[in-house]
Write a structure and sequence with these properties.
143 residues, mainly alpha, 2 strands, single chain
Length: 143
């Protein structure tokens, strides 16, 4: 389901209207932007491989980060808090967050390398239109 909201913003939601799927195809999510690019079969396969690889790595990093956060909260709830331990866990969390950003950056670069200059230009225009809500305005006027 497609919901409009705010200044050119949209979100994907399930039947309960609270479920957000950032990887949905169709009217929202990355699939919406890719559908207008006329990707070749090779490009689609490359992008699918990149997505699978990135999601796996990021999921593992997030799980590790959740464990670190649990350990930090557990320590915070102790009668005597070990400040050095908390600071150490906080540093480990920062490292994991940085790794996630690096993984996403590497994936975006690899994705960019799959697209042609023409496709990048189309994608840029599509993202600007989406940000400004131009497509939503045009759809509303057609009704």
């Amino acid at each position: 389901m497609f919901l409009k909201g705010g200044f050119g913003k949209a979100q994907c939601a399930g039947p309960d209207m609270g479920h957000h799927n950032p990887f949905a195809a169709g009217q929202c999510g990355p699939g919406a932007f890719l559908s207008d690019l006329n990707l070749s079969e090779d490009q689609l396969l490359s992008i699918a491989a990149l997505k699978g690889k990135a999601l796996s790595k990021i999921a593992h990093a997030k799980l590790d980060m959740m464990e670190l956060k649990k350990a930090a909260f557990k320590e915070l709830l102790q009668p005597q808090v070990d400040k050095a331990k908390i600071k150490g866990l906080a540093e480990e969390i920062k490292v994991h967050k940085s790794q996630c950003v690096d993984l996403m950056s590497e994936n975006l670069i690899a994705f960019s390398e799959v697209l042609s200059a023409d496709q990048k230009s189309k994608l840029k225009l599509s993202l600007v239109k989406k940000f400004l809500g131009v497509d939503d305005i045009l759809e509303d006027e057609e009704i």
